[in-house]
Amino acid sequence: MKKLLLFVSLFALFSVTAFAADLDKGYSKNFGNGQIVAKNGDYPPLDSCNPADFDWKDGISKVTVSWDDAICLRAILPAGKRFKDFYQAVAKSQSGNLKYMQKGCFYYQLWSDHDESGNPIAKAASSWPKSANETPAWERRGWFTVDYDDESGEWDTVGINGDAFRENLMQYFSTAKVGQKFYVALSVGFQYQVGAGEPEQKWNSTLSRFETVISSGELGYAYSDPFCGGTIVVKENKTGN
Questions:
Q1: Whole-angstrom Cα distance, residue 106 to residue 121?
Q2: Which of 114, 180, 208, 229 qualifies as a FRET site for 142, CA 20 to 30 Å off?
Q3: Which helix (H) or strand (E) holds 28?
Q4: What is the pLDDT of residues 92-104, one digit of tens each?
Q5: Distances in Å between the alpha carbon of 180 and those of 91, 116, 124, 222, 236?
Q6: Are 182 and 173 in contact (CB under 8 A)?
């Protein structure tokens, strides 16, 4: 399967400028906490929430895919949380890799109910995530990161503007069928690189625990369980694909 390995470090692409205020409470009131919501058009503002701007119902955002009409996302953290709360938990649980850290990062993952050939995934019909800390039980379509630092640790929201969506996600949505579903999950953590032959902490999914292995020297990512997630459905595709 073709894998997306994009490392995005320009905050301008991800529209994560320094926020002077918290996210307007209208977002959590109308959409709930731990959500990622999507819309066409302008980037969802920090200081106001107009539900009419979103085609959203029952936890699902519906969007039109077009080269001329941007798609933007906004993450709504769990109530009372800041990004630093999740980052600090990762730093504690993976302290062995922390000394090899190169940078902190926001970590986004993408799944779909269709594979890259356009075929439906059977598991998707019965095991779609029902909460923000769940992820689909099949192979993801892609992932990408953007820098995280102490300043962004104080934020209670982040998002993807139209330019960042085109850069990182449009390749998947542009070939989507009408009705196709996508799931986006957000985590935070850090990028690290342990020298080849040195001990590295790796997650053993069978045993559900970290264990020490001998590093191959490749880049690694330590990241939290997802704390925000959202389902996006394609209601129309105007790309011509």
A1: 27
A2: 208
A3: helix 26-31
A4: 998 999 999 999 9
A5: 36, 12, 11, 30, 10
A6: yes
